[in-house]
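Would you kindly consider the sequence and fold I have copied below?
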Amino acid sequence: MIDIRTNTVKGNFPTHFNNYMLANDDHGNIYYAKGKQVYRYSLSEQLEYPIKSSAYIVAHSITRIANEIWLGTTAGIGYIRNDSMVWVYKTSLGVDNDGIKCIAADSKGDLWFGSYFKLYRLNRQTYHLDSFPELANADNRTLALIRDKIFIGTYGNGYMVFDRDHFVRMPTGRNHELSTTH
């Protein structure tokens, strides 16, 4: 591992992990999934700590939002506090291959999350949950907030933008090269 502030080598991870799911916090920790377990790795101690969960989970996404580490899993979404999972919303997916694939927050503080089957928006003040029939079974793979708009990337159904309470389908390109995200 390399400290990008000082360009010095800080250490090695003890074993193989899912390197596409990484997030760091402000305290010198890195969060990652290895097999069916999520870990916090302390750079200063060079030790790995398992994240406790009250539910069986397989992590599908790890994201830092507003200085919290969020997990999208087979059991739902939540954030990590004191090396434990704090659940915000639980799904009924449960199957290892299904789960929350992507998480983003919009400028209002609402939490967006997508699975293979649905796109959700959770109002974090009222806990009101919306889902959008326009993206049912769309296999949502990526979410991003760009200039107060939510961009949604799907596997095989192209890109969508949510702007002013409406979805807009993005062009897929001449040869449909923009119809799939991974």
User: Anything to note?
Assistant: The first strand starts at residue 2 and ends at 3.
